[in-house]
Amino acid sequence: IVEKDRFQTLGDLRKQWTESGVETSRATVYRRVQEMGYRCRIPQVKPLLNQKRRQKRLTWATEKQHWTVAQWSKREMPKCLKSSVKYPQSVMVWGAMSAAGVGPLCFIKGRVNAASYQEILEHFMLPSAEKEEDFIFQHDLAPAHSAKTTGKWFTDHGITVLNWPANSPDLNPIENLWDIVKRKLRDARPNTLDELKAAIEASWASITPQQCHRLIASMPRRIEAVISAKGFPTKY
């Protein structure tokens, strides 16, 4: 039964045994599974990657294989985070990081489309781009990011955008940064929308440039992991 479907839970196994006339407890099922040499694990959730996407990831990683940490440090990486407290209250947040640390936060109202995304870039990203030489911007392939009008916005403003493979959160260190923020939010336990926003701002402000640099410095290892995995998802 286990080998037929490795994603079954102990509850699923117990139910099948009960239906076949074997009365047993969950603890007994657990012991029997252990005695048979199996171990209970929570499966990791990874993006679906077909052969074409895996090949694109592998090609992308091979092209970036010899980039140094200094080269990766020239990127600015943004991401949106959606956090919620007691339903239906929730908030969408946009933020970016670079080797210098985190940038300002933007709380977003409504859905993010190409027009609203460009407005965020105008007010929250562009000031940073204008201060730095050799500025490179990186974002994923969300519809608002990959829209033609957004591409034209970057061209009109003379900003270089790093090409990016689809379904590759394991290559983006800002995902780990948001995980740090989420853990801090669990400790804060906000109960209202205003408390949630304040907790997010405090968590974001507590991120140090050293933390950002360590995450960016992991890029060569992430690249090697994708190449070793032949384009499949990695531990990151």
TrEMBL record:
Domain Tc1-like transposase DDE residues, every copy: 70-197
InterPro entries referenced in this protein's UniProt entry, alphabetically: RNaseH_sf, Tc1-like_DDE_dom, Transposase_5, Transposase_Tc1-like
Domain Transposase Tc1-like: 2-64
Protein name: Transposase
Organism this protein belongs to: Cirrhinus mrigala
